[in-house]
Recover the amino acids of this structure.
C-alpha cells in the first residue's frame, strides 16, 4: 500500500495575504461591499481569520513546477523544455471541459501517475484522455492562532503568466505568439458578449415595433 505522510506546521507571513473564493464572494460580498476575508468561529470564541488551503496548494504546485522545469532543462539541455499548454497543465492542472470523459482511461491511470508524479500529486481538472484526475495532496487551511481583524484593500486576479512575467522567459517565440493571440481572442469575445447583451436588452424594449425587432434579431443572429 502507498505510504501516507501527515505534515503539520506554521506559516509566517512576511507580506500581506489576501484571498477570497468565488463562493464566499457571492454569499458575503456584492457590488456595494468590499471583498470579504475568509474567517471562522470556534464555538462562542472570537472570529479567527484563515488562509484557504487552495492558495497554499497553488504555491506549492508552482514551486514544484519550477523544480521540475529546472531538472528537465538540465537533463535535455533545453532552457525552454515546456510548451505553453504544458506550462498551464503543470501550473493549473488544466480546465475541465464539457465533453464526456473517456471511462476506459481508468485502466491506464496508474501508469500515467507513475510517469508524471507532479500531476499525480496535485491532480488535474483535464488531463487529456484521462479527463479529471484526483490529486493525492490534501492541504488544510492556515488558521490564525489568535483572533484578529482583517485589513481590507483592493486587488485583482490575473493570468499566471501576466502576473509573473519571468515565466515568459521559459516559453518559445511560437508559444509567446500563441499566448498573445489567445489573450486578444479573449478580449474580442468579451466585447462581443457585451454587444450581444446590449442587443438582447434592446430587443426586449422594442418587441412592439415589428420592423425594429426584426432588425435587432438579425444583428443578434449575426
Amino acid at each position: 500500500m502507498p505510504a501516507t505522510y501527515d505534515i503539520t506546521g506554521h506559516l509566517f507571513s512576511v507580506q500581506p495575504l489576501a484571498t477570497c473564493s468565488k463562493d464566499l464572494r457571492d454569499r458575503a460580498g456584492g457590488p456595494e461591499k468590499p471583498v470579504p476575508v475568509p474567517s471562522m468561529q470556534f464555538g462562542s470564541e472570537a472570529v479567527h481569520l484563515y488562509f484557504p488551503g487552495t492558495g497554499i496548494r497553488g504555491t506549492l504546485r508552482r514551486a514544484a513546477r519550477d523544480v521540475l522545469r529546472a531538472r528537465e532543462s538540465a537533463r535535455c539541455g533545453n532552457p525552454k523544455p515546456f510548451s505553453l499548454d504544458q506550462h498551464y497543465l503543470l501550473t493549473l492542472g488544466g480546465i475541465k471541459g464539457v465533453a464526456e470523459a473517456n471511462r476506459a482511461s481508468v485502466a491506464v491511470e496508474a501508469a500515467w501517475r507513475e510517469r508524471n508524479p507532479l500531476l499525480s500529486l496535485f491532480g488535474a481538472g483535464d488531463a487529456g484522455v484521462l479527463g479529471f484526475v484526483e490529486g493525492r495532496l490534501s492541504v488544510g487551511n492556515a488558521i490564525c492562532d489568535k483572533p484578529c481583524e482583517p485589513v481590507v484593500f483592493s486587488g485583482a486576479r490575473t493570468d499566471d503568466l501576466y502576473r509573473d512575467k519571468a515565466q515568459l522567459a521559459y516559453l518559445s517565440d511560437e508559444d509567446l505568439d500563441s499566448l498573445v493571440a489567445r489573450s486578444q481572442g479573449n478580449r474580442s469575445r468579451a466585447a462581443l458578449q457585451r454587444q450581444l447583451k446590449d442587443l438582447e436588452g434592446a430587443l426586449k424594449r422594442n418587441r412592439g415595433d415589428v420592423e425594429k425587432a426584426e432588425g435587432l434579431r438579425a444583428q443578434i443572429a449575426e
Observations:
- Helices lie at 22-28, 53-76, 84-92, 109-115, 117-122, 160-163, 173-205, 210-221.
- The first strand starts at residue 39 and ends at 41.
- DSSP finds eight helices and three strands in the chain.
- The mean pLDDT is 78.
